[in-house]
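P.,

For your records, the input lines for the assembly:
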Amino acid sequence: MSNAPSPLQPVRPPAADLTGAMFIAGRRVTGTGAETRSLDARTGQPLDPPYRQAGPADVEQACKAAEDAFDTYRDLHPRLRARFLETVAQHLTHLADALVERAHQETGLPKARLAGEVERTTGQLRLFADVLAEGSGYGARIDPAQPHRTPQPRPDIRQQHIPLGPVAVFGASNFPLAFSVLGGDTASALAAGCPVVVKAHDAHLGTGELAAQAIQAAVTEHGLPAGVFSLLVGDGPTLGTRLITDPRIQAVGFTGSRSAGLALVRAAAARPQPIPVYAEMSSVNPVVLLPGALAERAAELADAFTASLTLGAGQFCTNPGLLLAVDGPDLETFLDTASRFIDADAGATMLTPRIAEAYRIETEAVASHPGVRLLARGAQPRSAGPGQAVLMTVHADDFIADPELQREMFGAAALVVRCRDLPQLNDALRHLEGQLTATVHTGPNDTHEAQRLLPLLERRAGRVLFNDWPTGVEVGHAMVHGGPYPATSDPRTTSVGSRALERFLRPVAYQNLPHDLLPAALRDDNPYDIPRRVDGAIHLTS
Amino acid sequence: MSNAPSPLQPVRPPAADLTGAMFIAGRRVTGTGAETRSLDARTGQPLDPPYRQAGPADVEQACKAAEDAFDTYRDLHPRLRARFLETVAQHLTHLADALVERAHQETGLPKARLAGEVERTTGQLRLFADVLAEGSGYGARIDPAQPHRTPQPRPDIRQQHIPLGPVAVFGASNFPLAFSVLGGDTASALAAGCPVVVKAHDAHLGTGELAAQAIQAAVTEHGLPAGVFSLLVGDGPTLGTRLITDPRIQAVGFTGSRSAGLALVRAAAARPQPIPVYAEMSSVNPVVLLPGALAERAAELADAFTASLTLGAGQFCTNPGLLLAVDGPDLETFLDTASRFIDADAGATMLTPRIAEAYRIETEAVASHPGVRLLARGAQPRSAGPGQAVLMTVHADDFIADPELQREMFGAAALVVRCRDLPQLNDALRHLEGQLTATVHTGPNDTHEAQRLLPLLERRAGRVLFNDWPTGVEVGHAMVHGGPYPATSDPRTTSVGSRALERFLRPVAYQNLPHDLLPAALRDDNPYDIPRRVDGAIHLTS
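Structure tokens returned:
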């Protein structure tokens, strides 16, 4: 076969230089728009190099190149595409020191956490490489012809998934590696066979440029069409709108605020040809503390809760921002202990001064609600974007009455909902919007109540946890990082884990095709050696 | 296990009586709105019994009952749900004579065709029963805990698909059985575990009531919660909007016109919680006749084409309404032969007088286009809704210049696009909207050209056919009845074939759940005996 995998080539590490350029189809291009810079998260000082925003011609070139690359890239042997992803991962590892250094400067996140994020990002690329090599993503199905069937013969019909086309990716601020230029959306779209055009996040332009070098080097080494990847700089309203309305873009991956996500959803729906948008937007990740859990280990729970809440300055999509429990002495013990932890918290630098300011405004708005009581507030660190931990309580009556109290405060703030009894706790859960996660902590006698809650939690969230905390999202086969609206714009998918590539695929059936013209995944001899459903029965690889 | 399948009970055939009532959660309810009747398709005379449209309280009751039934129904053992679908199929078979008789009266479709449609409808219920019994729809995945992993232990994470919730189904006019009250949308939603509320199609209210008796009898026999199924009567703008905006409805299946489909899509997107709409809307199903095919068998192709075009008065979503070929003597032979067939065509009664009138207006609009030439027109039958076959040609220059010429004419009308050469034919294909199907006819020397066309056709359609005709949609595992916008509102799915049930599911992950609380599909002992992905590797049933 002409496109069978060739031996893996030696990897030439990309240079770790920052030039202030974007990447358009293999070329470094300086934008024609306004100048923009990342800020040092701690000092607020603008960092070198300066970047310039993409002009309309830059977007046009990136999208045209992506479209031109599509048919070649999607036709690549899946094991070659897998090797390409592995090479990208290798390059990222080579760049790890430079990435951690720059990301630390741009985001204020601790270096150890960022080093872990490099691992996570390479791990996620390798997971998709494994899935490609296995081939289940093709969803291959063969219903052979039945020429003698009566009253009508059955034609030969075969089905496979094909990629949707070029994908636009909008990176998140809070994971400068794992959810950004080379993050889960880019990795899963590339794995699916879709060229990617990324809008760089302004908060970590340098980290983005470094990551782009890793992918660009791999594109060149593997001799792929240059349009497989482009990185553009610009703001959401201008560049984002331009990208999403380009007719060649066929799907969108986004992680960020609800307002920005919904703006993309609306823009995509208003196109002459609407396209799917996978926007992961906001979640307060309710945690239920059942009576038995509080009776057994209130102080221990308070310890673990505050650790989860303040991790990374609370800047996680899965941050436990809402707790629900039945009022009583055990809840008081929990709140007293948690308050002591929060009061003693040193605070942390947030990702950007703007995010810190938004967090301050959001927490103040909730704190000023007549039903809300401020329980504890941590220290305010010296920094351009100081994040201060906050713990508040509200009675379930007030919580249920005002949906605004469900709003995410992006940072280390939590609201504890005091319920009269378990029926009211149930009622409060019923009033919740869709969430990424929902958690229950149980004690010895809570099993029956936990079982009653389960169907409700399943319908409210993409992931249900027991006696655990929602921060920390495993990248694996079983993970779901998704959930009902407005946690995401599309509950039928996940943006983390091997299933994420399914977002960028659609099925096509081939009827009565001459064998020579059949896509390789559907030929009788199964040249890709992938699992297929033949005449209804699943066959694993030969 | 408490919910393991019990022996199949004997089936009590439902009575085949028409009462003019709707079905709301197991009760026959007469609507409170305006009176409405189906028409005899041939005479245009109103038929008994009269029906009355649903009022707001009827919609409320049906949706509430669906929501109330949801948790019980979705928790049913998959093999019990499979048996329920098999019982529905048995009841439909018992009612076959009455269904064919009434549907023939209401739609004018030939009895033999309708008898085939009963088979197709029961076959499709049985296909979903098979898929349920096999269990791949659960998409079960288990990533076991790794307590000793460093630097962080891995928690136990398991994933399954759960149903979205109550589904609203809008039946089609042209398949009074296979795409209506008990059609593919209803069958796949029920298979997925979703209660269904159907809006009956006004053109075949009696057929709908009979089909509802089949399902209602099965609901009772299997002791299912009554809200699993309801059938409401009413018009699209009023009842349709009410249904789709009810907060309990979580997804929509629709087959019909583009304008009605897009109205539903807009209404669903404007809800406080937007929901997925699977609308199959319109398609002209381009057929390319390559030069070698025309040189080899122009007359034979014309024969097969006109048979496909005029089948069922052309009232198929997959009707070949657009042909593309290179100008020349072979195309003239094809057109001459096809014109003779069309001229000799006796015509047929269309589904309703309104559909016939819309068809007349649509074909006249195209025929009056300055670039279009009328080649042949069949006879006009004596009937309340006469459908007359029409064959027209247009030059590719004119076709490319005016997107209005791509509009579906729902009926036995086709437009042949004369191309200067193959590059222009390619260009015309590139200008096409998304389609359900795309077909190529090839001769001995066309293989190279066909290969070049394939990537283009894959991107334009949900099903690609070679040397075959698109009418006739196999119900199987490999079928795709779907396609890029505007053929459907969501290209990532199919509305026919076993994959159709995936439309009504979403993944949920369970982290660190006590084994007793795990959903059955995810327990260690695999009580449903279904295929699962464990630690990344696919395991078929034990």
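Two observations worth noting. Chain B touches chain A through 76 residues (CB under 8 Å). The radius of gyration of chain B is 25 Å.

Regards
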